[in-house]
Amino acid sequence: MLEIKKRYVIPGDVIIEGNYRPLMNVIKKDNFIIATRIGIAESSKDGIKVIPLSGVYIPRINDIVIGKIVDNSSLSWEVDINACFSAHLPAQDVFGRDFSPAKDDMKKRLAPGDLVTARIITFDRTRDPMLTIQEKDLGKISNGEFLKISSTRVPRLIGKRGSMIQTIEQATQTRILIGQNGILVVTGKNDEGIALAFKAIKLVEEEAHTSNLTQKVKDLLNVSEEITQTETNNSSVNNEHYVNNSNRDNNSNNMANDHSSNINTESPKEVQPH
Amino acid sequence: MDQTILIDENGKRTDGRSIDDLRDVKITIGVLKNADGSASIEFGKNKIMVAVYGPREVHPKHMALPDRCVLRCRYHMSPFSTDTRKNPAPSRREVEISKVMREALEPAIMLEDYPRAAIDVFVEVLQADGGSRCAGIAAASVALADAGVNMKDLVAACAAGKVNDKIVLDINDIEDKEGSADMPVAYLPNLEQITLLQLDGILNESQFNECLEKAIHGCKMVYEIQRKALIEKYFGNDLPEGEEKELEENKEN
Question: By percentage, how much of chain A surpasses pLDDT 70?
Fold first, then answer.
């Protein structure tokens, strides 16, 4: 069954002939599996899928996204999540079950222009996605620098088990919040670090398809293996830094793992039936 | 019937091509940063830019369809695209081409994947030579693929026609004006389906068949160029298509 391993395809390409299950970005026509996106075709024991290399963000259930509050009605906020549908954050999610539009001032909690990290709880294309912020690490983002990248580059930016994003965070002394919708918020101690992190992220976005990208990023950030080692050895010297660092890294690990697990677990629900 | 000699005694046409030659085609992808997908095509002397936006929210909202995506096409010729200034207001011809272009692209796009959304395709002709609708369709389909819209197939397009009683491939501006028939065809090369077939002129049955066959052959040639452009943009030109290659993640770590 594992006949296809990472083959480059464009729309219309026949990936394989035979009785395989179409998973993602593929259609079945007669006995052929045909790609519908530019990307990398892969087969697994579940079926055939194409990992896309371009495209706008289409919401999926359980994605963690960063969105901007655009407006509020009396019962919910409207959130721009960089997709073709605007998302809704119900007021009860923030105020609790006893929310009353008369008593509670929604603008005091989240005003138009605020950024939030949220999780998509429901979405089925026939209705706009619904969000929640009632979880650990979700909610309003107080400060940071805003950056938009293509959502197809998000897995690459995170890297395997968060390796890429950790490299960037450590070298630039920043903390990078990543939404699956391609919106990033970078916070850091100094502007130089943030500027450098921006550069690194742009590099990843532009050269996502090239190999040896981690090395390129490391070159850009002037991280060699030795320095990383000495840094960890000297960690006791700049103790304060290190504590902050490790805290941050733990957080980012969680975030990153969340993301990667989201990407890897393509549940059957998300399969597009054709 | 034809006063002008469009094919000389050596079988060469006005621009030096033989009857089965395509003009030089060059496609560049990702030329417009603001757009979700873009392409520019040089098809002989044609120069066309295509920008694709979407899937995105539909404005005005009442245009949205509950079960599928709205595809909107706009074909427009710049005032400076021809030797005499072209009025920039949409002409009858442009409205028609916008419509046939939409209908040529629609069968390839999986519109049912994006209900309540819209995809906008803007085709701007910077320099016009004959066959700009075909060049526009070819570029638009590449731009749609660049935008990451789900598609069953690319759309290739090419014209054929009758000049000096000979069926020729890919007719240019002079041949279009002075020749006796022009047949633009858009074609899904993998699904082997025709999505656009127009004919301006008179052909008998055998000429029609020959002309259509030639146009489809031209479409296949255009498809190879489209394909090459996409692969070069996304995977680099050093990687031949279909080559089994380890993804970079596996190499690292």
Answer: 80
pLDDT reported for residue B70: 96
Domain count across chain A? 3
Interchain pair B66, A126: CB under 8 A = yes
Same domain, A133 and A241: no
**pLDDT tens digits, one per residue of B177-223:** 999 999 999 999 999 999 999 999 999 999 999 999 999 999 999 99
Alpha helices in B45-183 (DSSP H): 92-105, 132-146, 173-178
DSSP A90: E
CB contact under 8 A, A8 and B236: no
Q: Is A272 within the bounds of a domain?
A: no
Q: Could you tell me where the DSSP H helices lie in B38-192? A: 92-105, 132-146, 173-178
Residue A116 sits in a domain whose CATH number is 2.40.50.140
Per-residue pLDDT tens digits for B224-252:
999 999 999 888 754 544 433 333 333 33
Q: Are B71 and B105 in contact (CB under 8 A)?
A: yes
Chain B residues in contact with A30 (beta carbon < 8 A): none
The rounded Cα A209 to chain-centroid distance in angstroms is 17
Contact (CB, 8 A) for A187 and A211: no
**How would residue A247 be classed by pLDDT, with cut points 50, 70 and 90?**
very low
- Please identify among residues 60-119 of chain B the ones whose CB lies closer than 8 Å to any CB of chain A: 66, 108, 110, 113-118
Order of strands, edge to edge, in the sheet holding A174-178?
A145-148, A183-188, A174-178
Does residue A56 surpass a pLDDT of 60?
yes
Contact criterion met (CB < 8 Å) for B252 and A212:
yes
List chain B residues with CB under 8 Å of A163.
252-253
The residue written with tokens 């940063």 in the block is B33
Q: Give, as one character, the DSSP assignment of residue A115.
A: E
Which residues are B111's β-sheet partners? none
Chain A contact for B248 (CB, 8 A cutoff): yes
Structure tokens at B181: 């028939």
Q: Which domain holds residue A133?
A: 64-141
A254 close to B (CB below 8 A): no
Note which residues in 190-219 of chain A have CB less than 8 A from chain B.
209-215
Question: A34 vs chain B: nearest CA distance in angstroms?
Answer: 7
CA distance B185 to B198: 7
Token output for B10: 């050596």
Cβ contacts of B154 on chain A, cutoff 8 Å: 10-12
The interface predicted TM-score (ipTM) is 0.85
Q: Is A84 close to B54, i.e. CB distance below 8 A?
A: yes
Residues 7-66 of B with CB under 8 A from A: 36-37, 54-57, 66
The structural domains of chain B, ordered by start, are 25-235 (3.30.230.70)
User: Which of A5, A8, A56 is opposite residue B231, by nearest beta carbon?
Assistant: A8
Neighboring chain A residues of B149 at a CB cutoff of 8 Å: 55
Shared domain for A206 and A222, answered yes or no, is: yes
pLDDT for A125 equals 84
